[in-house]
Give the backbone structure.
Amino acid sequence: MPNKVRWGILSTAAIGVKKVIPGMQEGEWTEVTAIASRDRRKAEDAARTLGIAKAYGSYEELLADPQIEAIYNPLPNQLHVPWSIKAAEAGKHVLCEKPLSLTVAEAKTLLSVRDRTGVKIGEAFMVRTHPQWLRTRELVVSGRIGALRSVLGFFSYFNRDPANIRNIPEYGGGALMDIGCYPITTSRFVFGEEPSRVQGLVERDPEMKTDRLTSAILDFPSGQAIFTCSTQLVPYQRMQFLGTKGRIEIEIPFNAPPDRPCRIFIDDGGNLFGSNIVTESFPICDQYTIQGDAFSRAVRENTEVPVPPEDAVKNMAVIEAIFRSAESGRWETP
């Protein structure tokens, strides 16, 4: 049995309590031993519900616990960097929810903190360790669809609640930060390149001022990626990778279900009715279990984490350039 990494959770945020922690608790390399909230009762309730041994009434208390080796940080976006820094300075490895920061400059501060403290810091893009994404990249690299030239992405949901942190600009709300970051990271991942220039079109909610409908073109050395994301549209998500000889479509690219198989469709373009499509199914798995174990294993084996801060800086650079382009009306360089 692996020597499990002992984790503490900073906050009782919904994504942690509902998705990430239950996933991590199934891991071979991962043990969730403590949870903290600024409201002790909330921490105790979450600990009881999830079967976590320790509950703390402040984040500082959790960081002071010498038993805790690693922290998962699902705090609101504007608290990602400040608390990741505090955790690193307390000697804890940090897996931080995406987007890791609000700006490129802020993300870069984590590079020096990591190098100074010697801990591992990673961004929680769980898609980057999911089998369907590893397989898609493998198929592209192997030439199954010829040369990859075009990526098409879409990601949307509907949420008009002004009190929700996803709708507050100062908290890093809006479509591009919350969900547009996914088509960006996966396009970069599968192309294996960085875009040289980008163009963006943004429509903002007149009251909340967050971007509610954002589209972008990313110009890569090998081809182009285009995507649209929205916080006020019918919920939908899909990614397509088109090459000179074929196409790969990922059915549920981002919210991969933990309770049923995932599927990708490989099309040789033989006809438009899809009768030549080959479907590959992936055994039921929880992407948060895989993410936690991949990070814990990197800690134990002293290897690179799946999504290091350098990658987060590059993703944030694309996001910033899309916003700049939407303002300038011109191509912008990340």
Q: What stands out?
A: The chain has a mean pLDDT of 97. The two ends are 44 Å apart (CA to CA). The first helix runs from residue 14 to 24.
